[in-house]
Amino acid sequence: MADYSIAVAHLYGDLMNTYGDYGNIIALTYYAKQIGVDVDYQLVSLGDDFDADQYDFVLFGGGQDYEETIVAHDLQDKATEVKQYIENDGPLLAVCGGFQLLGHYMMMADGTKVDGIGVMDHYTTNMHDPKLTVRNNERLTGNIVIKNNETGEEYHGFENHQGRTFLGESERALGTIVSGNGNNGMDQTEGVIYRNVYGSYFHGPIFTRNGNLAKRVLTTALTRKYPSIDWQSKLNAIPTETF
Ligand code: GLN
């Protein structure tokens, strides 16, 4: 056993795991292990309690509309604790459907409006929404590259979604589109950053293809739990994988 450990919750990992979003946890573990940190994994799914104080990192992956509606319903019971986790600066990665459900609502492909938990300020509308100024009846699918405006880092991934997400006042984008569609195919934004929450439409998974982001989030998680240690230097000393 290592001297240090982080507890990871995989929210609805049995239902929301498009294109192997679980790989984000494998990537995090890959880096953690090299600096002597154990990762304790816990699946938190339908009917389970989510205790905000118990976790150092949370992954909430993507899913099809059908699974997403089932999860949306159950998530209401966890909303208070999820909000507390986020407002306490807990690091969280939300991908695609998971990203959508942390916002106010999402519109399914068939037009059904599904309530999110509104712990973040974005909303997701439907590709057929007549209010969209750039409207096409297609899913936003393909390879995507974005640039993070604060760090200058470029992130690579693959997107496949019909939902069009629009960020709220308190949120900033994970990056600006270099190529691809992003949150809505209109405003050049991709993903979200709010406190220590990262949201994205990237599959691939994002942490395996963009080791710099994985290391950044791992640094945040470890510094929050063990503030007296210079985790950034430890992680800088090991190679960063990008694909
Ligand atoms: N069902 C959602 C959409 O198409 C989410 C898809 C996903 O998570 N890949 O917008």
From TrEMBL:
Keywords: Cell shape, Cell wall biogenesis/degradation, Glutamine amidotransferase, Hydrolase, Ligase, Peptidoglycan synthesis. GO terms for biological process: cell wall organization; cobalamin biosynthetic process; peptidoglycan biosynthetic process; regulation of cell shape. Residues 8-210 form the CobB/CobQ-like glutamine amidotransferase domain. PROSITE patterns: GATASE_COBBQ. Its EC number is 6.3.5.13, 3.5.1.2. GO terms for molecular function: carbon-nitrogen ligase activity on lipid II; glutaminase activity. Signal peptide: none annotated. Pathway: Cell wall biogenesis; peptidoglycan biosynthesis. It catalyses: beta-D-GlcNAc-(1->4)-Mur2Ac(oyl-L-Ala-gamma-D-Glu-L-Lys-D-Ala-D-Ala)-di-trans,octa-cis-undecaprenyl diphosphate + L-glutamine + ATP + H2O = beta-D-GlcNAc-(1->4)-Mur2Ac(oyl-L-Ala-D-isoglutaminyl-L-Lys-D-Ala-D-Ala)-di-trans,octa-cis-undecaprenyl diphosphate + L-glutamate + ADP + phosphate + H(+); L-glutamine + H2O = L-glutamate + NH4(+). The active site is at residues 96, 203. Pfam families: GATase_3 (PF07685). Substrate binds at residue 139. The lipid II isoglutaminyl synthase complex catalyzes the formation of alpha-D-isoglutamine in the cell wall lipid II stem peptide. The GatD subunit catalyzes the hydrolysis of glutamine to glutamate and ammonia. The resulting ammonia molecule is channeled to the active site of MurT. Forms a heterodimer with MurT. Belongs to the CobB/CobQ family. GatD subfamily. HAMAP family: Lipid_II_synth_GatD (MF_02213). PANTHER family: DETHIOBIOTIN SYNTHETASE, LIPID II ISOGLUTAMINYL SYNTHASE (GLUTAMINE-HYDROLYZING) SUBUNIT GATD. This is Lipid II isoglutaminyl synthase (glutamine-hydrolyzing) subunit GatD.
